[in-house]
Amino acid sequence: MGGSVAAGDHAGDRAQVLAELSAAEAEPDVPAEDVPEVNKASVPHGIGVMAVPPWREGLVAQVLPDVYRDIMEIVADAPGPLQAEQIVPRIGLEATTAKIEGTRGMPKRLVERGWLDEGGPGRFTLARHGSDPGRVNSR
């Protein structure tokens, strides 16, 4: 019978703790005027946030996230078109199938947004904009 008394005591303790927690939630220790107001509109949620903006006149690669900027620099410094398996080790990743496949979408996204061109399947070069053939968008 000693076990049932202890179980009853624990149930009473739980009820007391719950009552205290409920009372604490009802009466905050900090006055309302001291609590900073949260502006939910300014908190980024990740939905609808575009990490790679579309290229436009005057926009430079420095606006891109670091890894995309690295890809732009690698492609700009290359003597010809690069494939994902050539880009991966140059951005500091192991040239494994998983890393190559995981990275392949990044230059594709840069193509979609006008930063790079895809001359052939999976062959990436800097996008050329305007009438000057020597003008590229990376710098």
Account of the protein in words:
The chain has a two-stranded antiparallel sheet. The model is unreliable at 1-5 and 132-139 (pLDDT under 50). The longest helix has 25 residues, at 2-26. The chain has two domains: 2-39; 40-139, Winged helix-like DNA-binding domain superfamily/Winged helix DNA-binding domain (Arc Repressor Mutant, subunit A), CATH 1.10.10.10. It is mainly alpha-helical and 139 residues long. It contains four helices and two strands. It has helices spanning 2-26, 66-77, 84-90, 97-112, and strands at residues 116-120, 123-126. Residues 1-36 are annotated as: Disordered. Residues 26-36 have a biased composition (Acidic residues).
Topology:
Layout (H helix, E strand, L loop, with lengths): L1 H25 L39 H12 L6 H7 L6 H16 L3 E5 L2 E4 L13
Which key terms come to mind for this protein?
single chain; disordered N terminus; mainly alpha; 2 strands; 139 residues; two-stranded antiparallel ribbon; Arc Repressor Mutant, subunit A; 2 domains; elongated
Strand order, main sheet: write it out: 1-2
Q: Which fold name corresponds to the CATH topology of the largest domain? A: Arc Repressor Mutant, subunit A
Give the SSE string.
HHHHEE
End-to-end span in angstroms? 82 Å
Structural class: mainly alpha
> Low-confidence stretches at least 5 residues in length (pLDDT < 50)?
1-5, 132-139
Total strand count, please?
2
Mind telling me the C-alpha Rg?
28 Å
How many helical elements? 4
Strand residues, percent = 5-15%
Q: How does the major sheet shape up?
A: 2 strands, antiparallel
Overall pLDDT confidence: 76
Kindly report the name of the CATH homologous superfamily of the largest domain.
Winged helix-like DNA-binding domain superfamily/Winged helix DNA-binding domain
Which architecture of the largest domain would the CATH scheme give at its second level? Orthogonal Bundle
Q: In CATH's first tier, which class of the largest domain applies? A: Mainly Alpha
Give the overall shape, derived from the CA principal axes.
elongated
Structural domain count = 2
What is the percent of helical residues? 40-55%
